[in-house]
């Protein structure tokens, strides 16, 4: 069942923006817009169903103590967001998952290497280009450790490379050393790659039900790609809502969730929209808050700061059943809540906050998600990807390139003395 719904105050959706989004959706479907050579992600939920790599890597790695997943940007956030949304952070699983290559901190790398001393571990290294500095640096350290521990034959069983099918340093290395490998399709960019081997392989190793994830994404795909009506298509309605807000001077979008499990979905969403839309001096700035936590830090700004923001709330309908206790002496004054579900209290906080923010001049819309499981997370992420394609085309930019990320690299390579830089 495709359960994702989107609700906005009708007056926040401008008819011009909606019309532009309907045209943008047509451009996306007819593959006539800029960057259309990168539309492979549109069909991934169905095309990846038969791919057996994730299951076979999960099987091969199940006896290890630890698996280090190396990657950055789109080669990192999709996996991390789904895992964080679904895992129980208090349960220790085997293999334990760790991240590397998403920054250049030496303290972190040193601690990770110290921790791995004499442990049985494996590596999944993910980089579409195969040349990104941060994951390449991490891989050099971790591969060296693994090689010294297990030798040339041992690493073959413990390293999986996910990269371009033919080109790049990582592909050459994987072929030369006969390492297991998966492919990032040519026509899928990093931030749209969660339903390819980039997300599915590490998720299967971490024990996530990737079939259910793909099933949810596929249902969203079948739903949102057909309907040009904002009342029935949450991706189209969301794209129209955010473009309307932008056109009326609201330049910052706050992704607000009331479930800590969604912290990395927010990070993934920020990358998706930020890298897709922030170009040619245009684009909504995507920001996020964790609520109710941040009501005690950013709440003041949201309620009364500069009126340039709009908010998109993720309301997850179901959560674990936990009833508030009744205390003998009502010392803390909470007995008025006794017997009520904690999730109901959380969702009343959400409603109360939406009302307060609206009355403070912040347009607020919401996504309704039935519960946090692999199926619905798959559906939600696909809905966002599709909305992002529409929204960026309506804004007039290419959603699938990222020319701006080269600027820091050029400077860094020059300062580091990279040959040819
Ligand atoms: O979305 C993108 O294309 C980027 O964020 C990339 O995923 C990121 O720069 C990492 O690139 P690569 O996978 O080539 O190492």
Automatic annotation (TrEMBL):
One GO CC term, this protein: cytosol
Keywords on record: Cytoplasm, Gluconeogenesis, Glycolysis, Isomerase
Record field: transmembrane: none
Keyword Iron: no
A GO molecular-function descriptor: carbohydrate derivative binding
Subcellular location as annotated: Cytoplasm
One of the GO biological process terms: glucose 6-phosphate metabolic process
EC number: 5.3.1.9
Domain of life according to the entry: Bacteria
InterPro entries, sorted: G6P_Isomerase, Phosphoglucose_isomerase_CS, SIS_dom_sf, SIS_PGI_1, SIS_PGI_2
Active site per the UniProt annotation: 275, 409
Protein family (similarity comment): Belongs to the GPI family.
Protein name from the UniProt record: Glucose-6-phosphate isomerase
Species of provenance: Leptonema illini DSM 21528
């Amino acid at each position: 069942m495709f359960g994702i719904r989107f609700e906005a105050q009708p007056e926040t959706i401008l008819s011009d923006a909606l019309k532009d989004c309907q045209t943008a959706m047509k451009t996306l479907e007819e593959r006539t817009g800029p960057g259309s050579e990168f539309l492979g992600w549109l069909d991934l939920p169905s095309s990846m169903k038969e791919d057996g790599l994730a299951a076979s890597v999960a099987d091969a790695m199940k006896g290890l103590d630890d698996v280090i997943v190396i990657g950055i940007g789109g080669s990192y956030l999709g996996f991390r967001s789904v895992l964080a949304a679904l895992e129980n952070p208090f349960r220790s699983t085997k293999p334990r998952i760790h991240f590397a290559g998403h920054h250049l901190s030496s303290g972190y790398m040193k601690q990770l290497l110290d921790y791995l001393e004499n442990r049985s571990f494996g590596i999944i290294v993910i980089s579409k280009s195969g040349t990104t500095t941060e994951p390449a640096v991490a891989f050099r350290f971790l591969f060296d450790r693994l090689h010294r521990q297990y030798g040339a034959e041992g690493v073959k069983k413990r390293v999986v490379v996910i990269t371009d099918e033919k080109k790049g340093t990582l592909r050459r290395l994987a072929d030369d050393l006969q390492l297991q490998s998966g492919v990032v399709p040519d026509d899928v960019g990093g931030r749209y790659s969660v339903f390819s081997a980039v997300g599915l392989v590490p998720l299967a190793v971490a024990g996530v039900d990737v079939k259910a994830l793909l099933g949810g994404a596929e249902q969203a795909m079948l739903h949102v790609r057909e309907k040009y009506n904002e009342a029935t298509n949450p991706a189209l309605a969301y794209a129209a809502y955010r473009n309307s807000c932008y056109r009326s001077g609201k330049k910052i979008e706050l992704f607000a969730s009331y479930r800590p499990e969604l912290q990395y979905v927010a990070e993934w969403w920020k990358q998706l929209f930020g890298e897709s839309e922030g170009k040619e001096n245009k684009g909504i700035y995507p920001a996020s808050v964790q609520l109710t936590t941040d009501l005690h830090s950013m709440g003041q700004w949201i309620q009364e700061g500069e009126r340039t923001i709009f908010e998109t709330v993720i309301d997850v309908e179901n959560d674990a059943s936990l009833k508030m206790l009744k205390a003998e002496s009502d010392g803390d004054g909470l007995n008025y809540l006794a017997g009520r579900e904690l999730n109901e209290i959380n969702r009343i906080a959400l409603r109360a906050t939406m009302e307060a923010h609206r009355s403070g001049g912040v347009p607020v819309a919401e996504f309704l998600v039935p519960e946090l499981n692999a199926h619905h997370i798959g559906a939600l992420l696909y809905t966002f990807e599709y909305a992002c394609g529409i929204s960026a085309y309506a804004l007039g930019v290419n959603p699938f390139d990222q020319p701006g990320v080269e600027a820091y690299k050029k400077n860094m390579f020059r300062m580091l003395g990279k040959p040819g830089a």
